[in-house]
Amino acid sequence: MMHRRRSRTRTLVGAGVGCLLALAAQAQMADSDAPLELPEFPVRSERIANQEPSATMDMPVSALRFEPRVDVQGRNLAEAQADIAIRGGIFENTGFRLGALALGDPQTGHYFAEIPVPPRMLGPVQVLTGAQNAIRGFNASVGTVAYAWRPIAPGGFVSVGAGQNRFNRQSVYLATARELSAGERTLGVDVDLSRSESDGTVDFGDHDFRRAAVRLQVRGALSQTDVFAGYQTKFFGWPNLYTPFAGFRESEDLETILVALNHVWRDAQGNELELGAYHRRHRDDYEFNRFAPNTLFEHTTWVYGASVAGRVALGAAAVRYGADVSTDDIDSTALTYGRFSGRSNWKLSFVPEWSRPLAHGDTLTLRAGANYDDSNRHGAVLSPIVGIERAGHGRRVYLEYAQAAQFPTYTALNSNPAAGLFRGNRDLGATRSHNLELGASLSRGAWQVEAAAFHRRDDDLVDWTFPGVRTATALDLDTYGLEVVVAYRSARFDAVAGYQWLRKRTDFDASVTGSYYALNFPRHRLTAAFTWRLGLGVELRFDNEVRTQERNVLRTTGDEALLSNWGIYYLPPRLRGWEFSLLVDNVWDDDFQEVPSVPASRRQISGGVSHRW
After folding, report:
1. pTM value?
2. Residue 61, number of CB atoms within 10 A of its CB
3. CATH number at residue 376
4. 548-585 residue pLDDT tens
5. Looking at the 3D structure of the chain, how many domains does it have?
6. What gap in Å lies between CA 469 and CA 492, rounded to an integer?
7. DSSP state string for 113-144
8. Contacts of 1 (CB under 8 A, 6+ apart)
9. Could you list the residue range(s) of the whole structural domain that residue 445 is in?
10. Sign for the pseudo-dihedral over CA of 67, 70, 75, 81
11. Within 13 Å, how many C-alpha atoms sit on residue 137's CB side?
12. Is residue 128 part of a domain?
């Protein structure tokens, strides 16, 4: 059975490569054609083809599923519950930034992606690693997913969809803007209302999601200020959602509120300033048996945070600086075995850099600085950052070393250490990450290439291990990796291919027989996204992923996967702003368990109609 599965994967990969070469040839022949004038549709990720999910309303996490540098490990839909891993890290090593604001959830990293912001209010996603993460991340030891606030333009958007398993969705977006101060500033307001529901692709895999959001924006020539308020509720079920025991029909009922203020200013000399503040409340009611609800796992967290970051240009030198602070509290029926239920964390970052011109128009830049992470519940951590790079004429080569620190969440700290589904450890301390990286990038015409090789050492990484139930365990872990991303873009054809190779070495105690997360990673992962504009308003969009996963005794299906999300779109040339779509998610109906022992979401077919003005 495994041999047949591998043969199928190799055959399809070969066919996909052949298809890519044929389409690239077609695209090159079409380069001389005049560009097609199409309606403007928002781009949430420049590295995936299908911007809309096929089985729910869209969320910020939707743009990450086939992102070459991000591994989304979903339970039910990615939009239901998704662990976001970067470079072989685990879900709690990844942070999120909205403009200046560093968001997170103090209870568990499973809820880091619960962000009630419509993607159409955000710019394309950025994935920060290495020194970038060390400078801009907060309480994230491996990577940060970053978004900017999109400028408001007058217009609107209405979208509806329906498909298998009684799936239906509706979204409405309205935006208005007017000039102030004789055209020097613009005042804008936008509003989003979205919902979706479905019976799910497996029994007891239903969902019901709703979101409402509003934003006020003042924008000038050099600055932009955003005030945002969002509310989101999510109910979803899934068999074996968290427990690896057959027969459990689990569910989550989530409610998230986010209020945020963000201001950014930049000038032509390279000076930057971005600052903001936010409040986030997140409520979670988890049932390990949805048909016998109880109050064993009910949690509410409150977070208040503020951030400031910027760059000061000083001729041939510059200084990057930043400061983040957050204070949180948790009220829980289960997480009551730790030493505290409220905490304050803060971080200071100071990184000077020096640049000098070289021959042929290149620039050599040296940077050296440090981060200081501290908390009223844990000890302080000082983390150095050093790097050298040469850049110019569309190319860049760099070598850098950076450290980052992270404090554990309450599920790890405050769970009962002797009983229950999740076993905690009140004595866990900070995780310290040491990243050494060599990388390069090149841009030539329609082509872009990025590559990086890295070694990361994580000291006291908090993982969840077995045998038996999940147990919070501190371990030391070495990760070796290689990432390559190649992109080609033309008037009629776009292609983005990514490859990632990972290897790990750890020091598990003899009593530990395996890992739920730290050792759940792809040894090889290949992503390929194609967008082919055939003409007359017809587009084909393909997102694909092939992976060979590290073996895990909890995974009851194979270690290889072929995942595809394909779409056919029609944008009528004479009906500007209209879009008709047919989407197929998990085209091959692959049963690969992204999280070991958690059943995969199966094939879903849906259609949609959208209109923008």
Report:
1. 0.91
2. 26
3. 2.40.170.20
4. 999 988 898 999 999 999 999 999 999 999 999 999 99
5. 1
6. 52
7. T-----GGGB---EEEEHHHHHHH-SS-SSEE
8. none
9. 2-299+309-612
10. negative
11. 30
12. yes
